[in-house]
C-alpha cells in the first residue's frame, strides 16, 4: 500500500473535505473518533495506567500510620515524600488525559473512492497551525484489520515508518491509550474509536475493488 503525507496551512473546515480531494475523487464517508475527545473519556489502556497510579497512591498512604515519628525518616518526613509522589501521579494522570483528548479531537477521517484519509491538525516546530494529511491509497489485499478496543474498535487503514512525519511538534498519532508495543517499528494509521468499524471495513473493501478496477 502506498501511504503519503502532505501538509499545508490549517484552514477553517466549514467547507468540508472538498479542498483536500483531487479531480474526480468522491467522498464516501467522513467522521471523527466517537470516543476519547473529552477529558474523562478514557481510551485504550489509559484507564489501566490511571488505576495503577490510583491504587499505588492508596497503598503508599496506607503505610504512613506504620511509620514511627522517632525513626528516620520520620512520619513527618514521609508526609512530604508521599505528598510529592501523589502530586506527580496526579500531574501525570492529568497530562495523559489532556494529551489524549487533544489528539483525538484534532483527528478527522475520510474514505474516498481512491484512498483512506487521516487529517491531523496541529502546530509545527514554528508553532504555526498546520493540516497534516495522511493518505492511504486503496491497494489489493490490504486487510484493513480491526483493533479491538473499549468502548469502540479501531480500524487499521495503513502504516507509517515514523509518527514524526505527521506532526514534528507534538505527539503525532499516538497517545496514552496506545499500548507501548503498538508503537514499536512501524506506526499504524488508524480510524480510532469508531462505532461502525465493521461496516466501515466493508466500505473500504468495496472502495478498494472499485479503485483497482478503474486503474490501468
How would you characterize the overall build of this protein?
The protein is α+β, with helices and mostly antiparallel strands and 216 residues long. The chain has two domains: 3-39 and 103-214, PH-domain like, CATH 2.30.29; 46-100. It is 31% helix and 25% strand. The chain has three helices and eight strands, in the order E-E-H-H-E-E-E-E-E-E-H. It has helices at residues 46-62, 75-105, 197-214; strands at residues 3-9, 27-31, 107-112, 115-123, 129-137, 146-147, 153-160, 187-194. The strands form two sheets. Strands 1-5-4-3-2 form a five-stranded antiparallel sheet. Strands 6-7-8 form a three-stranded antiparallel sheet, covered by helices on one side. Helix 1 runs antiparallel to helix 2. The two termini are 17 Å apart. The mean pLDDT is 85.
Task: List the SSEs and their pairings.
Elements: E1 3-9, E2 27-31, H1 46-62, H2 75-105, E3 107-112, E4 115-123, E5 129-137, E6 146-147, E7 153-160, E8 187-194, H3 197-214
Antiparallel strand pairs: 1-5, 2-3, 3-4, 4-5, 6-7, 7-8
Keywords: Membrane, Transmembrane, Transmembrane helix
Organism: Paracoccus maritimus
Protein name: DUF304 domain-containing protein
